[in-house]
Specification:
The complex is a heterodimer. Chain A is built from 16 helices and no strands. By secondary structure, chain A is an all-alpha fold. Chain A folds into two domains: 88 residues, no CATH class; 232 residues, MetI-like (MetI-like fold), CATH 1.10.3720. In chain A, helix 5 crosses helix 16, helix 6 packs antiparallel against helix 7 and helix 13 runs antiparallel to helix 16. The N terminus of chain A is likely disordered. Classes of the chains: A mainly alpha, B mainly alpha. At the A-B interface, helix 1, helix 2, helix 3, helix 4 and helix 6 of A face helix 1, helix 2, helix 5, helix 6 and helix 7 of B.
Chain lengths: 337, 294
């Protein structure tokens, strides 16, 4: 993220020069870049003028800072504080140190929800990436129809998983849902298959739904990256006699690392924070076998009223999600950027 | 970027004969793939027009001919008064879109065109909200909103949505301002126009696409959000559409009625599709700017 903070000068200069990549210019921004981004500040910087610039700048960003502080940072800090107490939803509370965290180690519901969420993430991540990549290859060319196909493939993502989960609930019902009647025609399932009351079947159905829902987003992100790759690279690869797959492997995939990293992070973090589809389609059942981490937190806070414990779970979740993001970013980006 | 794509397409057209049959296959494949993603949703629209008895029983010949708006009529009137929830969702969505684009517009302007102390730090703070998953601060936020008397309030919900849409919004708006040619900035400066005046007169036409992108993202986020609305609203009359539908699903309004549930889900789906098709240029722009710079 620190790269973004120092990005504006070089970004701006490269845009003005009609450049494709930011890497042409040194990261920190050249002297020319700095003055270009100086904006309305006069060239001869008197202290009074720069003080005025500072004041105006701060005033402009103040509302955004206020929102983020009030509804993201304070809750985060408050969450850490609550996690060190035995806070019930109503009534007095005491500090109990790290007792909530040590209790989590033995909390079977929480541990099971972590395992289940990991399993779910492992199942959906690769199909979303592979299908998304294949779709991106399909729609990236400026051929007749490709824009329409892009739009169509992206529709499930736009509609959102919540509405689609409600539809899936109806269509996965035994003896009336469309899914069973279609699958029965191919001999894959029986008309009476009750998808949502068996752990394995429910996980299968939800995974298929999510892969269908999320592939379009990966497609869009990867397609944007692919279109930024200079055509000359493919031309020279063709001259060298590279096959389609050879060019894909040697040019597209390495140059797409950033976009792949981004779409993987979005998809893995999204899976880790999954709630809607499980709450709507199985309500965590049978038992708590399809309860995701966020669902476990929700239940602990709003059904068991154990706010302290729920906050400890949340802090663990933030750390885990942060680590996943960091590792994937590091691993896929390398030191190239 | 568009030129590069065009070049690539031009190369492919080198062999005209191959191209013609290749194109036919491309279109066939494209229609088939599109069908996989769109047909299930179209099928649900059709299903929502079947009476409840057809939705909850094995399909028969009759269930394909007796189409009716009955589910919609029941849903939008009488006991399951979904219309109110649709209006709640619209209020929260529009409020979130307006707040997010206004706050992001100012912040993007400040971050892009004013170099000042702490601006890097401040930008980092705004992006932090991007790193904090809102799902993980739900409990403390619940208590905080309670203290602020913003629990069970559509305004409170909109403030919460605005916060978590700001990182993307600020990012998009900052990029919009960075694209304004430097000469225009200097010209405005020489004219001696005030900061807000410059924003209104010089930049407004140039950053409108960015505002459209930000507002669109914020609206769609708000319209489809479920967990926050489920946690922060406990009064039936204030439920947004997704929360109301989860009540239909569990049968709070009498017995479970899958016909109503389908019709409700279709009502939730339609604004997304309409808004996306109408403004997809801006949506894709936002995604791409996030993808390339993110």
């Amino acid at each position: 993220m620190s790269g973004q903070v120092s990005a504006p000068p070089s970004e701006r200069t490269s845009r003005l020069r009609g450049g494709l990549t930011q890497s042409w210019l040194p990261r920190g921004g050249s002297a020319a870049g700095r003055s270009a981004a100086g904006g309305p500040a006069p060239r001869r910087r008197s202290t009074a003028a720069s003080r005025r610039t500072t004041r105006t700048g701060l005033l402009l960003i103040a509302p955004a800072l206020l929102f983020v502080t009030a509804f993201a940072l304070i809750p985060l800090g408050f969450g850490v504080y609550i996690s060190l107490t035995n806070w019930p939803l109503v009534g007095p509370y005491h500090f109990i140190g790290l007792a909530n965290y040590t209790a989590l180690v033995h909390n079977s519901v929480f541990l099971q929800s972590i395992l289940f969420t990991l399993k779910y993430t492992a199942i959906v991540t690769v199909p979303i990436l592979v299908i998304g990549y294949a779709l991106a290859v399909f729609v990236r060319a400026n051929r007749p129809g490709s824009t329409v196909f892009r739009t169509m493939i992206f529709v499930p993502y736009i509609v959102g998983l919540v509405a689609e989960s409600f539809m899936a609930v109806v269509e996965l019902q035994p003896d009336s849902g469309t899914v069973n009647f279609v699958l029965a025609k191919f001999g894959i399932a029986k008309v009476s298959t009750a998808w949502l009351v068996h752990t394995g079947l429910a996980l299968t159905a939800i995974s298929v739904l999510v892969i269908w829902f999320a592939s379009g987003l990966t497609m869009m992100l990867l397609m944007a990256g692919m279109q930024g790759i200079p055509v000359e690279l493919y031309e020279s690869a063709r001259v060298d006699g590279a096959s389609w797959w050879g060019a894909e492997r040697r040019i597209t995939i390495p140059l797409l690392r950033r976009s792949i990293a981004l779409s993987l992070i979005i998809s893995v973090v999204g899976s880790f924070l999954a709630f809607n589809q499980f709450f709507i389609m199985t309500d965590g059942g049978p038992g708590t076998s399809t309860e995701s981490v966020v669902m476990a937190i929700y239940q602990t806070a709003f059904a068991d009223f154990n706010v302290g414990l729920a906050s400890a779970m949340s802090i663990v979740l933030i750390v885990v999600v942060g680590l996943i993001t960091f590792v994937q970013f590091r691993y896929l980006q390398g030191d190239a950027d | 970027m568009a030129a590069a794509v065009h070049d690539r397409a031009a190369q492919r057209s080198a062999a005209p004969r191959q191209r013609r049959s290749g194109l036919v296959w491309y279109l066939i494949a494209g229609v088939a793939i599109s069908a996989v993603f769109v047909l299930p949703l179209l099928w649900e629209v059709f299903r929502s027009l079947q009476p409840e008895s057809a939705v909850s029983n094995p399909p028969s010949a009759a269930s394909f001919t007796h189409l009716t708006f009955g589910n919609y009529k029941t849903l939008l009137s009488g006991q399951a008064d979904i219309l109110r929830n649709v209006i709640n969702s619209l209020i929260v969505g529009v409020l979130t879109a307006i707040l997010t684009s206004l706050v992001a517009l100012l912040a993007g302007y400040g971050f892009a065109l004013f170099r000042f102390r702490f601006s890097g730090l401040a930008f980092g703070v705004v992006l932090l909200a991007f790193m904090i998953p809102f799902q993980a601060v739900l409990t403390p936020l619940f208590l905080e909103l309670h203290f602020l008397h913003l629990l069970n309030s559509l305004i409170g919900l909109a403030l919460f949505y605005t916060t978590f849409n700001l990182p993307v919004g600020v990012f998009v708006m900052r990029n919009s301002f960075l694209q304004v040619p430097g000469e225009m900035v200097d010209a405005a400066q020489i004219d001696g126009a005030s900061v807000l005046r410059t924003l209104a007169s010089v930049y407004r036409p140039l950053v409108m696409p960015g505002i459209a992108t930000t507002a669109l993202f914020a609206f769609l986020f708000s319209w489809t959000e479920f967990l926050g609305a489920l946690s922060f609203l406990t009064n039936d009359g204030l439920f947004t559409l997704p929360v109301a539908l989860s009540n239909v699903e569990t049968g709070t309004y009498g017995s479970v009625n899958y016909g109503l549930l389908l019709a409700g889900a279709v009502i939730a789906m339609i604004p997304c599709i309409v808004v996306y098709i109408a403004l997809q240029r801006f949506y894709v722009r936002g995604l791409v700017s996030g993808a390339l710079k993110g």
